[in-house]
Each structure stands twice: as C-alpha cells, then as structure tokens.
Write a structure and sequence with these properties.
about 5% helix, Immunoglobulin-like, about 260 residues, mainly beta
C-alpha cells in the first residue's frame, strides 16, 4: 500500500470561522493503489527426450540353412589326350555365405575311379575313346546337392618320332622309329618321293631308281600314321634322271632348233 499527503481547500462553513476565511484541512489520505501481483515463477520445463526418428531395432530375420547351389561344372581340356591331366572347376554357393564342401566322384565309361580324388585326375588312367565325367556333391549344414559334369571323350594322340631327324643325311637305307602313346599300330608312307623310292612296314626307306625318273630336287615327307592322326617330317633329296628319262631328255635337246 502507498501512503500520500493531500491538501484540501474547502469553502467557508458557517459557525466554524469568519465568513470568507478559508480553512485549511490537512488530511492524511490513505491512498490505496493496488500493486500488480508478482508473476508466478513457472517451473522449468521438464526435460523431453529427443524424438526417435529411427525405427525400433528389429532382429534381422535369420536365414534358414539350406543346401548349397551348384552353378557350374566345367571339365578341361575339352578334348583331352592320353597324356593330359583332366581338371574340373566347380562354382557352388551358400545363401548365407558359409563355406561349401565339395566331393568329387570321377567316372570313366560310367565306372568309378577310386584312386582319383579332388579336382584333378592325373594321366595314365584313361585311353583314347574313353568317356570321362565327374559327379559333384556340394554340402553344408543345410544339406547337400549333387550334379554332374558334361562328358568329354579322350582324343587321339598322334605318333611320336623316336629317330633324331637332325641325324638323317640320306634317305635310302635309313630306318625310322616311332611310338604311339595310345598303343595304336603305326603304318609308314612317303609323300612327294621320286619314282622307285619306297618305305617298308618296319620304317626302312629303299630306292631302286626308275628309268622314267626325270631327276631333280625333292622334299620327301616321311609319314607315321596311327589311323586317326599322323606325324611327318620332310627330308630334301636330289636324284639323277633314270636311263630312259635321260635318253628322252638328250633326244629332245638334240631335236631342238639351234639359234
């Protein structure tokens, strides 16, 4: 509450003073001015947890164990020979990315090969004409899957010369030797040979000459064949004309006009 002093001037009142003299009253006037109430202290705002804008954590769905998948089986080489090793490449996957165990069951003409293990079969277990495949079993803790490769057929291997061709200086009287890795029988022949030159079944070259032989330079090819393939090499040979060929050549020269 606020207190103040106020001065009041009043008109003259009968019986109180002389007429016309003013009378002063000092009055203490209590002035009551309402004081605005003090603002109420508001309590501090309660702490609010930040809004979670992320989805609540959910357990990742567990991938059930399943057998692996075999995507591809490939044998190489595609046309193996008797002296080749045969290898297999396998693409197999597990949906959970776990390791996959592989089992190899090699077959030759549908018969199992017990001594062949792993992704490689060494040479010496098959021959020309054999049909090779491999059955693959891929396994994990979810089970197993089985598949088989394509079939490859063992190709022919041509004969191999055993005679050192660098040592051959003359054909007549030379005997050639060769081996066939498949065990096939070898037959011999000559190509581009002069008349009268032959080769025997044992690989020996003979030359008896021929009256009709014109003579000259030749590149004689010695050929060893196994019936499905061959090996060959050339030997340069020079021969003289036969007697009949020489007489014919001399007569032709004598009959030619002179210039």
């Amino acid at each position: 509450m606020t207190r103040g002093i106020a001065t009041v001037t009043t008109a003259s009142m009968a019986g109180d003073a002389a007429p016309g003299r003013p009378m002063l009253f000092a009055a203490l006037i209590a002035c009551s001015t309402p004081k605005p109430p003090a603002p109420k202290a508001e309590p501090p705002p309660a702490a609010v947890a930040p809004a979670n804008t992320e989805a609540p954590d959910a357990a990742a769905p567990e991938v059930r164990a399943r057998p692996p998948r075999i995507l591809r089986i490939r044998l190489s080489p595609a046309h193996p020979r008797h002296t080749d090793a045969v290898e297999v490449a396998v693409d197999a996957v597990d949906l959970r990315g776990e390791p996959v165990d592989l089992d190899y069951d090699w077959r030759i003409n549908d018969a199992p090969v017990p001594e062949a293990h792993g992704p490689r079969m060494s040479p010496g277990k098959f021959k020309k004409g054999d049909r090779i495949r491999v059955d693959i079993t891929a396994s994990n803790d979810g089970g197993e899957t089985t598949d088989r490769s394509e079939i490859v057929t063992v190709a022919n291997t041509v004969p191999v010369f055993k005679t050192d061709v660098r040592s051959v200086t003359t054909l007549p009287g030379t005997t050639f030797f060769a081996e066939d890795p498949d065990g096939d029988r070898i037959t011999w022949s000559l190509e581009h040979a002069p008349s009268g030159m032959t080769i025997s079944p044992d690989g020996t070259v003979r030359y008896q000459g021929s009256e009709d032989e014109p003579g000259g330079d030749y590149k004689v090819a010695v050929v060893a064949s196994d019936g499905d393939g061959f090996a060959r090499f050339e030997v340069p040979v020079t021969v003289s004309p036969g007697s009949k060929a020489a007489t014919t050549a001399a007569a032709a020269k004598a009959a030619s006009p002179k210039r």
